[in-house]
Structure formats: C-alpha cells, structure tokens
C-alpha cells in the first residue's frame, strides 16, 4: 500500500474514550485502534495527542459523527499489548496507529492487511517493520523522530557538560532490535572520546536500580539515557538515581528535563 493512502488513513485518528458510537445517518463511521507503549500518565504523549486531536478536527473528523477510536496504553508491559491485540480482532478497525517497538511488533503480528502507521521508532528497517524508508511495502509505514546516528551527540554533550567523565553507562532497552544501530553510533563516539562504554538494561525497576547503583561504585561516570517505553515509564526512578549517585546524565528528550533531569538532546 502506498504512503499517501496510509497518511489519509492516519488522518482518521484522534483521541477518544474506548467505546462504540453511532454515526449520523448516511455517514460511515471509521474506526481506529491506537496502541501506545507508554503509560497513560506520560506528559509528553498527552501533549502530542492533544495537538493530534486538534489537527484532525480541522480536517473534518468528528468523534461520534464519522470517527471512533479505541485507545490503549501498555505502560511498558508487552502482555497488555497482546491482550489489546486480541480485542482488536473483534473491533475490526480501519487502521492502526502504533507507538513504540513493542506496539508495532504486536500490531504486525495481529494483521497483515489492516494499515499500520508507526511513530516513535528508531530504525524501522533494521527492526524489520518496513523494507525501506522510501518504499515501506506491506501494510506498514510511519514517521521517524530522528536519525539514530545523531545519538552520538549524546556522548559529545556528556563530555562537554562534564569534561572529567571517563565512563559512560548507556541505559537502553536490550529487547529493541531497532536500537542496534543507535547503540553502535554511541559506542563509536564513546571510543573516539576515550570513554569506557557500558550498556545498562531498562527492562524493569529492579534492573535499572541495580545497573545504575553498580555502575556508580566507580568514579568519573556519567549516564546516557536512550528513548524507549521502559525508560519513559521509569523516568522518575532514573532521574532520582542519577541525582542520588551524583551522575551527570544526558537524556533522549525534553520530557526528561521537565521531570527534573539535567539536560537532553533530541527532536522534542
């Protein structure tokens, strides 16, 4: 399916409470399922979705008249997404919007015919979501927040704000295949700047606490926090641990700075 068709279908997505509503007589009701990998209390996603809704209203989509949305938050738990995917088959949507690696994976496993539009994906080609950026192929396409090679800037920024840092712990979702290119770019930059490189998983709160606390036992360390659903869900924990252990930290986006993080570099 061509990208223009997908973009037209994406224009049918807005924010609404789950439920079935009736279209006015003579007008077809379109249904969209939205999968979010983060939690419902995520402030950045709330802001984005509010803008999303305003824009779609300007395009003539009205909830309850010609549009119905089933909106689901996974809160970093893939099991939630699998449950929602089962419900989705019953709802038979016209299109799916999926945010994050886990959400896109679940959506693709559920259907190869319903159009899927992804957001918040680092490298959809390496992840196997699309054949290429120019010609996605299949039933999936979407948007990139940034090109993963720019994540090398996080390493440079860490060195600029804390020149004495000699060790860098990189918090990342080890289960996200789309982050392999990003990790390579960070590792290459760290090597060029003479930084010792250490990946730390963000699978759950325990892994994050143990990983940062163990890393902080050494001296001259700093953190680089890459973007993922798990990092977003556990953001306050990460920021608190960085402050407790006096580790300078560079984050993936402004949402972390708004939550009390030191500094960020990213598209938002």
Which SSEs are present, and which pair or pack?
Elements: H1 3-10, E1 30-36, H2 43-58, E2 67-73, H3 78-91, E3 95-99, H4 101-110, E4 116-121, E5 140-144, H5 152-161, E6 167-172, H6 180-192, E7 196-201, H7 205-215, E8 221-225, H8 229-233, H9 235-244, E9 249-251, H10 254-258, E10 263-264
Parallel strand pairs: 1-2, 1-3, 3-4, 4-5, 6-7, 6-8, 8-9, 9-10
Helix pairs in contact: 3-4, 5-6, 7-9
Question: How would you describe what is shown here?
Answer:
It is a single chain. By secondary structure, the chain is α/β, with parallel strands linked by helices. The protein folds into 2 domains: 3-144, Response regulator (Rossmann fold, 3-Layer(aba) Sandwich); 148-264, Response regulator (Rossmann fold, 3-Layer(aba) Sandwich), CATH 3.40.50. Helix content is 38%, strand content 19%. It has helices at 3-10, 43-58, 78-91, 101-110, 152-161, 180-192, 205-215, 229-233, 235-244, 254-258, and strands spanning 30-36, 67-73, 95-99, 116-121, 140-144, 167-172, 196-201, 221-225, 249-251, 263-264. The protein has a 5-stranded parallel sheet. A 5-stranded parallel sheet has the order 7-6-8-9-10, with helices on both faces. Strand 1 (30-36), helix 2 and strand 2 form a beta-alpha-beta unit. The longest helix has 16 residues, at 43-58. The two termini are 30 Å apart. Residues 1-9 and 11-25 have low confidence and may be disordered.
């Amino acid at each position: 399916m061509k990208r223009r068709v997908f973009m037209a279908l994406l224009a049918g997505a807005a924010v609404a409470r789950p439920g079935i509503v009736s279209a006015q007589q003579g007008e077809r009701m379109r249904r969209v399922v939205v999968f979010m990998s983060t939690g419902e209390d995520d402030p950045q996603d709330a802001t984005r979705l509010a803008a999303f809704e305003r824009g779609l209203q300007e395009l003539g989509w009205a909830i309850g008249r010609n549009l119905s949305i089933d909106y689901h938050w996974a809160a970093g738990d893939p099991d939630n997404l699998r449950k929602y995917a089962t419900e989705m088959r019953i709802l038979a949507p016209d299109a799916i919007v999926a945010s994050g690696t886990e959400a896109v994976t679940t959506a693709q496993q559920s259907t190869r015919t319903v159009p899927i539009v992804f957001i918040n994906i680092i490298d959809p080609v390496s992840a196997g979501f699309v054949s290429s950026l120019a010609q996605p192929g299949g039933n999936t396409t979407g948007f990139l927040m940034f090109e993963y090679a720019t994540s090398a800037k996080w390493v440079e920024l860490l060195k600029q704000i804390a020149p004495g840092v000699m060790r860098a712990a990189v918090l990342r979702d080890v289960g996200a295949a789309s982050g392999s290119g990003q990790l390579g770019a960070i590792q290459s930059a760290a090597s060029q700047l003479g930084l010792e490189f250490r990946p730390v998983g963000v699978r759950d709160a325990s892994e994050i606490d143990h990983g940062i606390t163990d890393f902080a036992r050494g001296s001259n360390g700093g953190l680089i926090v890459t973007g993922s659903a798990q990092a977003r869900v556990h953001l306050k924990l990460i920021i608190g641990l960085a402050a407790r252990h006096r580790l300078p930290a560079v984050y993936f986006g402004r949402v972390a700075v708004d939550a009390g993080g030191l500094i960020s570099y990213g598209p938002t």
